[in-house]
Write a structure and sequence with these properties.
There is one protein chain. By secondary structure, the protein is an alpha/beta fold. It has seven helices and eight strands. The protein has an eight-stranded parallel β-barrel with strand order 1-2-3-4-5-6-7-8. α1 links the parallel β1 and β2. It is globular and about 40 Å long.
Length: about 210
């Protein structure tokens, strides 16, 4: 199981990013919010790009924005392995192609109420399906049980279309809810790791 650690819930990002850099977390999950697609808004790129000062981990960037067009070039420049956009956002195909043009793996995310088949037109363009198991935009929420069904639907969809991409899940992931995610290839966890005294121990519990 791959682990992507979100530092969104951190009260001291530089310190916590340095601590994460000493763990074996596979990725640093970076949530970008524009205040439109979701209510919250994250710091501008001119500040976010300083992540490289504190960690050498590859980034798993999640763009919770109305239109990713103005974000892709910036985040493709800062050690990103994945850039994921929402199927509910604007210009999805165009933006997925833009991500791939930078040699970055492209992902597509779905909100909890969005049917999994909404992503079918984009399957040839993606490397990751990101299932939101909470409402996007705020950390610390409880895992939505309906997400278990969506994981199975995603796995069946990939088999039906003979596509090879990973299934990731984001929201409310901890040592209890991880049992629901065994069909996933990667999980995103924030509060469960960041709000603990031992990051590595918590990461181990998710693997």
């Amino acid at each position: 199981m791959l682990v992507s650690t979100s530092f969104l819930s951190s009260t001291n990002p530089p310190k916590d990013l340095k601590k994460l850099n000493e763990t074996d977390t596979d990725y640093i999950h970076v949530d970008i919010m524009d205040g439109k697609f979701v209510k919250n808004k994250t710091m501008p790129f001119r500040e976010m790009r300083n992540i490289y000062k504190y960690t050498s981990k590859r980034l798993d960037v999640h763009l919770m924005v109305e239109d990713a067009h103005n974000y892709i070039k910036d985040y493709a420049s800062i050690n990103s392995e994945y850039i994921t956009i929402h199927v509910e956002s604007k210009r999805v195909k165009e933006n997925l192609l833009a991500i791939r043009s930078y040699g970055i793996k492209a992902g597509i995310a779905l909100n909890p109420t969005t049917p999994i088949r909404e992503i079918v037109p984009y399957l040839p363009l993606i490397d990751q399906i990101l299932i939101m198991s909470v409402e996007p935009g705020q950390g610390g929420q409880a895992f939505l049980e309906d997400s278990i069904k969506k994981i199975k639907e995603a796995k069946a969809l990939l088999k039906e279309y003979k596509m090879n991409c990973i299934i990731n899940i984001d929201g409310g992931i901890n040592d209890t809810t991880i049992k629901n995610c065994q069909d996933c290839d990667m999980v995103v966890s924030g509060s469960f790791i960041i709000k603990s005294d031992n990051f590595q121990e918590r990461i181990n519990k998710l693997r």
